[in-house]
Amino acid sequence: MGVKIVLIGAGSAQFGYDTMGDIFQSAVLPGSQIVLHDINPVALEGVHKNVANFIREKDLPYTVSATIDRREALKGADFCVISIEVGDRFALWDYDWHMPMHFGLNQVMGENGGPGGLFHALRIIPPILDICADIQAICPAATVINYSNPMTKICTTVHRKFPDLKFVGLCHEISSLEEHLPGILGTPFENLTLRAGGLNHFSILVEAGYKDSGKDAYPDIRAKAPDYFGEFLSLDVVIRELKRVEAGSTPMSEPALRAQAGKWAERRIFKILLEQYGCLPITSDSHLGEYIAWAHDAADNKAVMEFWLYYRQWLAEARPEIEIKLHERVVPIMEGIITDSGYEEAAVNLPNEGYIVDLPSFLAVEVPAIVTRNGLKGIRFENYPKGFKALLSGQVGTNDLLADAVINGSRELAFQALLADPCVHKYEAAARVFDYMFVLQEKYLSYLK
Questions:
Q1: How many domains does the chain have?
Q2: What percent of the chain has pLDDT above 90?
């Protein structure tokens, strides 16, 4: 039963190869037509050649083509998967992270939240809106799955501009529960029922239970997780690995690195949320800290920086290959829509249709969802923790203003969105950062008038 799947941003070997490997392991998707699209013709040609050779060598029942013409690629598409960046990712990220801090606005990472996350969003949302405009015009019934960050800001804005588009955000952070909970609880992951929710990269485990006994597992998590994560270790092993890679050795995968490091660092904000709010976060300080006003003071900033340096080097040195195994959850979602399976997907980003009570409907929240031929329907949390919901509420204003700023091309609203961010506590510093970033990133921000 073939469908047409369009991968937008497929010139990135990491995205293209991982997604192709996911598709090739499916029992539902054989016979599908896959179209690779990117604005970089050289990178696209390389990925296309390798994917075509892989299909031929493995005698797989798929066809693949590639084009830099997005409108041509989208004709007749059933699924569109977006994973794009703009410009030199790390050079721009350096500005996002360090320019606010230079003027005294303390933030963690600067990729998805805080002042840096705002500028990242101001750059990347316009081209994603252009992509969505083409999808709306050419294949409006297609399901659109976004991997690009900043996820919450992108999804909130896209749904405001294109409310009828079947647009969903997908992130792999939820996989941390499978990585850690069996070790914390001493039981197989298959014996657990779990539901997590919040905002992307700012989410917690809300419900946990044992299948065999039917008992609530959260008391055990609260009791055992602190010892499991242990003291906050320095990432000396990461520094050793960075030096090894710089000397020409092949980088280890992130899971292998974590396994060698033992109990991982980057858990100070994590620990506070666990102890003070009674909630187990599903990610670590580098993500959580981007959304909380007091985070920079509490975060394991040394570990955040060390791992970021390794991550940057790893991406530069990694040589991705196509592997027929499941890397992400995009394929189960496609399969669930095609087969009308009704299965529960662990975490997707959708407009908040009452899924987390008291948060506005326009805000994209990350919740579990039921997948059917009609798309994805989020699952409502009846008793979402009030304390953590108060932290989530701090993101409402900046996301609301940002969406309007991008859609209307308003520099004034963009500045208001910056001032509304919980990590901005100095007006003059915010004004200087805003003006300097418009000079440094003029190519991407000139649409704001």
A1: 2
A2: 81
Total-model pTM: 0.92
CATH of the domain at 429: 3.90.1820.10
Same domain, 420 and 308: yes
289 and 422 fall within a common domain = yes
Q: Same domain for 190 and 76?
A: no
pLDDT in tens, 136-194: 999 999 999 999 999 999 999 999 999 999 999 999 899 999 989 999 999 999 999 99
Indicate if the pLDDT at residue 208 is higher than 80: yes
Which of 276, 304, 328 finishes a domain?
A: 328
Catalytic residue among 37, 172, 296, 327: 172
Domain that holds residue 252: 89-112+172-319+329-449
Residue 228 shares a structural domain with residue 143: no
Co-location of 220 and 358 in the same domain: yes
280 shares a domain with 401? yes
Q: Tens digits of per-residue pLDDT, 398-447? A: 999 999 999 999 999 999 999 999 999 999 999 999 999 999 999 999 99
Within this chain, do residues 218 and 352 fall inside the same structural domain, yes or no?
A: yes
- Choosing from 293, 328, 363, the residue where a domain stops is 328
| CA 170/CA 128 separation, integer angstroms | 15
Q: Is 159 a catalytic residue?
A: no
